[in-house]
Design a protein that fits this description.
Layout lengths: L41 H16 L10 H15 L2 E4 L3 E7 L2 E6 L2 E4 L6 E7 L4 E5 L9 H4 E3 L5 E12 L2 H6 L4 H18 L3 H5 L3 H19 L3 E12 L5 H70 L1 H17 L49
Antiparallel strand pairs: 1-4, 2-3, 2-5, 6-8, 7-8, 8-9
Helix pairs in contact: 5-7, 8-9
């Protein structure tokens, strides 16, 4: 079926009988071909939408309708006005700028500012901790120009440290310095150099790091407060401190020699303390023994004198009785540990010989000899 066959109507209806084409239906512009029977009419839908827009704008080529301009302008203004809403997170502080100048600070929550270009918002995290490394952030990123410093005893020390800080005042943080992080690094290096310049090498590389860190943090905070930077220094931590790499071997030798000297000095002090303590102990023991002997001798002499006075008093009262008592006590003291033999010399005509055992002390007396039984004599036979 050809398309130019007027006898058979095409998909746009029957052709008109004359030249007037106003009544002829238009060809859809969406597809460029006939619509398949039973399918969706996309081309007709687009035509209807386009026709409605043309009618709304003024009938296809004329002026737009008067009521449309205020609607469009109102919608644009509403969208522009609504663009001023913003949300401040709990860890942030918002700074509102009016034509580029500081206007106010806003706390967390849903906030509003006049839309751009009247007002602009800068959000600054105020609770997040930031870290700045001085002297390099790793072994391969060492910066001798930042880390090498001179101590008070004219020694060179290589100090790598980190500064932990946070924003204390967002407005000052944004406007007081052009580069806040660079300012923190410069102040940290300057403060560390000043503190190290007042400290000797040994405390810095051994037990004095804590004091150096605290003094550096305090000096940094005073400097930043004087600048009005709005930054709070949380902590200064020394990552490594030691001699420069070029003199590490010589420094180790010197350190070993100092340790040997300290060890020898400690041993000498230990020996000195031991000898001195022993001498003090012996001297104290001798002194105490002499004092005890003196006290004993004085007390014994005092007792003997008192006893003699008492005996003398009794002797004056009864001389004979006192002499006899003294004689008896003396003899008792002498003879109480010896064997006593009483010999009556009356009627004796021959010398008396005593055995030696009699004169031995009682504790040394030998046990009596054992008398062995004599063997029995055999009896003669026959009763003789």
């Amino acid at each position: 079926m050809p398309w130019n066959d007027n006898a058979n109507p095409g998909p746009w209806g029957s052709p008109s009988g004359g030249d007037d084409k106003r009544d002829q239906p238009r060809r859809p512009s969406g597809g460029g071909g006939p619509r398949r029977p039973g399918g969706p009419d996309f081309g007709g839908s687009f035509d209807r939408i386009a026709q409605r827009l043309r009618d709304l704008m003024g009938g296809g080529g004329g002026r737009p309708r008067r009521g449309l301009v205020p609607i469009v302008a109102g919608g644009a203004f509403a969208a522009w006005a609504l663009s001023g809403f913003y949300v401040v997170q709990p860890n942030e502080q918002a700074i509102v700028l009016t034509f580029g100048a500081y206007s106010r600070s806003e706390t967390p929550g849903l906030r509003y500012h006049l839309p751009t270009p009247i007002e602009h918002v800068e959000k600054v995290p105020v609770t997040s901790l930031k870290r700045t490394d001085v002297g390099g952030s790793g072994p391969d990123a060492d910066s001798p120009a930042e880390s090498q410093m001179l101590t008070s005893d004219e020694q060179i020390v290589d100090v790598d440290f980190s500064v932990t800080w946070r924003v204390a005042d967002a407005s000052r943080y944004l406007f007081a310095t052009r580069d806040p992080e660079g300012a923190v690094k410069a102040v940290a290096e300057s403060a560390m150099r000043e503190v190290v310049g007042k400290t000797q090498l040994q405390p810095i590389i051994s037990t004095g790091r804590g004091l150096v860190q605290q003094q550096t943090a305090d000096l940094m905070q005073r400097t930043l407060d004087a600048w009005g930077a709005g930054i709070s220094v949380v902590e200064v931590q020394i990552r490594s401190a030691g001699p420069p790499p070029e003199v590490v071997a010589a420094f180790r030798e010197v350190n070993n020699a100092e340790q040997d000297a300290d060890s020898a000095e400690n041993e000498a002090n230990t020996y000195r303390n031991r000898v001195i303590n022993e001498a003090k102990g012996d001297a104290s023991r001798i002194t105490n023994a002499a004092q005890a002997y003196r006290e004993q001798a004085v007390r014994e002499a005092t007792g003997e004198a008192a006893r003699f006075n008492q005996i003398y008093t009794e002797y004056r009262r009864a001389p004979g009785v006192t002499r006899d008592r003294l004689y008896i006590e003396t003899m008792q003291r002498i003879l109480q540990n010896s064997n006593k033999v009483v010999v009556d010399s009356k009627g004796a005509s021959a010398p008396i010989i005593l055995p030696p055992d009699v004169f031995r002390p009682k504790t040394q007396l030998a046990p009596p000899p054992q008398v062995e039984a004599a063997p029995a004599q055999p009896q003669p036979k026959g009763g003789q």
